[in-house]
Write a structure and sequence with these properties.
Radius of gyration: 28 Å
Order of helices and strands: HHHHHHHHHHHHHHHH
């Protein structure tokens, strides 16, 4: 198997390397060489990058060995995941060489470490969102990527790529929503756009309501005075209640929104006393139902600010319970 030019001479001086020499032993050789010849360390990663650009010059057997070796080097931290950029070469991608090589490489890498370690290395150099580039533009989809690597026995990698694409889609959606709100676009248009994007990104209502809440609360500059911010928040949320209502058709979505509100009020100290008034407003606007509020109060609340928020909600929850009991009593009498 051909080696990077700067390493070949040094390797031959120290070892008699043949085609049958175990791939697993090569990293040890490189480590020893680099320790002995310090000048090799700086250029090692660049030589690997160059080597990968010429994969078409290798036999399939040689490519497989090189892929395994590269995976081990990545796992050991001898090189960074930035070397994967060589696999995005148009000719390699077009002929399917890049994807086939990546399968062997990632199998070797994950076998040495695990998917979490691999994911961390990819994120560190910005490669986590570029894996789709292993395929031609007409096959660059999450579905194709997932099937290809799942069929090759790398489901964990396909799951990682799908998750990364979902995160990217959420960020883009959040950015566009914030721009629409800042422009003052009609709520009907924002709702229609958001529902369409939710389908495209395959997002649930629970996930969508969290994005919407974040956008709504970040679309205004809040007053720093506690006594004024509550009034400002009520006015702002009343304006956007139809948008929130459009994505809380399920109990789980309502509960998710409640948890987001609790978290937001806790993280933004000047909102601590506004929690109850926000919940009551959204109840009156038919965004939050009594079942979700009661469930949040009795068992589903977060630990953040628990005592403060439960105390704020105590009287309102008692009113909800009494109203529910009266309703049940009226129904029994009617029967």
């Amino acid at each position: 198997m051909p080696l990077a030019p700067s390493l070949t001479t040094a390797a031959m001086q120290r070892h008699s390397l043949t085609s049958w020499w175990p791939v697993e032993c090569w990293p040890q050789v490189f480590n020893k060489l680099i320790r002995r010849y310090k000048y090799l360390e700086k250029g090692f990663e660049e030589e690997i990058k160059k080597l990968l650009l010429f994969l078409k010059g290798f036999t399939e057997s040689e490519r497989n060995k090189l892929a395994m070796l590269t995976g081990i080097l990545l796992a050991n931290g001898n090189i960074s995941a930035s070397i994967l950029s060589s696999l995005f070469n148009e000719n390699l991608v077009k002929e399917g060489v890049s994807a086939a090589f990546a399968v062997k490489l990632f199998k070797s890498w994950i076998n040495e470490r695990d998917i979490n370690s691999v994911a961390g290395s990819l994120r560190k150099v910005g490669m986590d969102n570029r894996l789709m580039e292993l395929f031609p533009a007409n096959k660059r989809s999450c579905e194709h990527f997932s099937k290809y690597f799942t069929d090759a026995g790398l489901k964990e990698l396909s799951d990682f790529a799908r998750n990364q694409q979902s995160i990217g889609a959420r960020k883009e959606l959040q950015k566009e929503l914030q721009e629409q709100m800042s422009r003052g676009d009609p709520l009907k248009e924002i709702i229609a756009f958001t529902k369409e994007e939710m389908k495209k990104a395959n997002l649930s209502e629970q996930g969508m309501i969290g994005i919407i809440w974040t956008c709504v609360m970040s679309s205004v500059e809040w007053n720093k005075k506690e006594e004024l911010v509550t009034e400002q928040a009520i006015k702002h949320l009343k304006q956007y209640s139809p948008l929130l209502k459009a994505f809380t058709s399920q109990d789980h979505s309502e509960l998710s929104l409640l948890l987001k509100i609790q978290e937001y009020c806790y993280d933004n100290i000047h909102f601590m006393r506004a929690f109850q008034k926000i919940v009551v407003l959204l109840y009156k606007a038919d965004v939050l139902g009594e079942e979700a509020i009661l469930k949040w109060y009795t068992e589903a609340h977060l630990a953040k600010g628990k005592s403060v928020f439960l105390e704020q909600m105590k009287k309102f929850v008692e009113w909800l319970k009494n109203a529910e009991e009266e309703s049940e009593s009226d129904e029994e009498e009617a029967d």
